[in-house]
Design goal:
The chain has 90 residues and is an all-alpha fold. The protein has helices spanning 12-25, 29-54, 62-76, 82-89. The chain has four helices and no strands. Helix 1 packs across helix 2. It starts with 11 loop residues before the first helix and ends with a helix.
Length: 90
Amino acid sequence: MSLERVTITIPSEILEAAKSAAEREGLSVSAWLSRAAERAAKIEAGLAAAEEAMAHVAPPTPEEQAWVDDFMDRVTRPAVPAADQSRGAA
């Protein structure tokens, strides 16, 4: 793989966060940002592929959409710590 030098402008706070993360992982800032950009590009490519695939699928029925909405609500809801659950039982 060939490397190219580029100049980018990012907010100071993001640069500091990237430096800290790179240091924790034992990477240079360039390597850390390169890996982050690669991951972001893969996510975007996956989203584009999913969008293209969805163009060939019929929209969900109201029942199917309700199931998906319920599932996504359950899996994305923050976990309740065990201590908080026991307080609700009192």
